[in-house]
Write a structure and sequence with these properties.
The protein has about 325 residues and is mostly helical. Helices cover about 75% and strands about 0% of the residues. Bound molecules: 3-methylbut-3-enyl trihydrogen diphosphate (2 copies) and magnesium ion (2 copies).
Length: about 325
């Protein structure tokens, strides 16, 4: 029953967010092709998980959902911008079931489409200054958080790329990297909602902790699905982390806990962009033998528990239950 309610609420929140997204990145803007490229992933869908966090965190602290829509949209725009650039960085040609932006329009236009969406993030937040729906000091607080989060994402993405060429990466280094590239944005998504909703400092902190640990678990699951999911359902390439040489938690564990033969198999494909599908499949089998996927799944589950514990400071409510259910849903997802 709880999961049915969540899926209805996710749909409803996505609908509200899409209306405003379609306004701010309108099909009527010119020149058309740069807006087509910028809108490509927005139209392709996606879970809209981050704006959901924003809207529900606003509600959690007693705010009105309508008042959080411009920041929720800003967060999804920021996410979309990072996805466009991420696919260039990761040489991934599929996203949300369609060709990625650079695969369709080329790298120069994809870079520009990303930059355009990044500016739209600010345009969206600055709408508050025209509608007077939010005190200027809160607008600045939201802009500050979004700015600092973008810096963190860039730092995390830089570490992600840098780790590809490094020998041994520790779990601590991995968690620092995903904390910056992924969990920081989930944290900001929740906090920006709590800020515009008028939450207290301690409420903003608690919901931020909840979203941060949810974000760490979320990225571990993303890495697992990147090896084990059905590519069609996932909508993005499976096995490409191996070819790119990504140091996921799974890979770190597998390399540390493999015998000579398994290690040889893994290293023959890790970072080898020419590895065939068959070789990639052999590596996925080798990784499974080290129990790295079980290990990583377990870590994600523990982080999910840690996240939910951060919510204990909020009194019981329907929206609190919904956020806890949302955390479970993200960890259990299959795509
Ligand atoms: C993908 O995020 C990037 C990661 C941080 C793992 P999502 O899995 O939320 O992607 P969409 O928005 O649903 O496509
Ligand atoms: C996630 O990157 C973080 C950002 C996009 C900033 P990944 O490279 O791990 O995510 P996917 O698997 O391509 O969506
Ligand atoms: Mg990627
Ligand atoms: Mg990446």
């Amino acid at each position: 029953l709880a999961s049915q309610l969540l899926s209805e609420q996710l749909k409803e929140s996505a609908k509200q967010v899409n209306v405003l997204l379609n306004k701010i990145v309108s099909v009527d803007l010119e020149p058309p092709f740069i807006y087509q490229a910028s809108r490509h992933l927005i139209d392709a869908g996606g879970k809209r998980a981050r704006p959901f966090l924003t809207l529900k965190s606003c509600e959690l602290v007693g705010g009105k959902i309508e008042d959080a829509l411009p920041v929720a949209v800003a967060i999804e725009l920021l996410h979309t911008f990072t996805l466009i650039h991420d696919d260039i960085m990761d040489s991934d040609t599929k996203r949300r079931g369609l060709p990625s932006v650079h695969a369709k329009w080329g790298i120069p236009i994809a870079i520009t489409a990303g930059d355009l969406l990044f500016a739209k993030v600010y345009e969206s937040v600055l709408q508050y200054t025209k509608t007077n729906k939010l005190e200027p000091v809160k607008v600045l607080e939201a802009l500050d958080l979004i700015t600092q989060t973008t810096i963190a994402i860039c730092e995390g993405q830089a570490l992600d790329v840098m780790f590809e060429d490094m020998e041994a990466i520790s779990e601590d280094e991995y968690f620092k990297m995903i904390g910056k590239k992924t969990a920081s944005l989930l944290k900001a998504s929740a906090q920006v909602g709590a800020i515009v909703g008028g939450g207290s400092e301690s409420q903003i902190k608690s919901v931020g902790d909840f979203a941060f640990y949810t974000g760490l678990a979320f990225q571990i699951i993303d890495d697992i699905l990147g090896l084990t999911a059905d590519e069609k359902a996932l909508g993005k390439p499976v096995g490409s982390d191996i070819r790119e040489g990504k140091r996921t938690l799974i890979m770190i564990y597998a390399l540390k806990n493999s015998n000579k033969d398994l290690k040889k198999q893994i290293l023959s494909t890790l970072g080898n962009s020419d590895a065939s599908l068959k070789e990639i499949q052999a590596t996925i089998e080798a990784v499974k033998k080290t129990r790295a996927i079980k290990y990583s799944m377990n870590k994600a589950k523990n982080l999910s528990v840690k996240a939910k514990r951060a919510m204990s400071t909020f009194p019981a409510s329907q929206v609190k239950d919904l956020l806890l259910e949302f955390n479970d849903h993200l960890v259990k997802r299959k795509h």
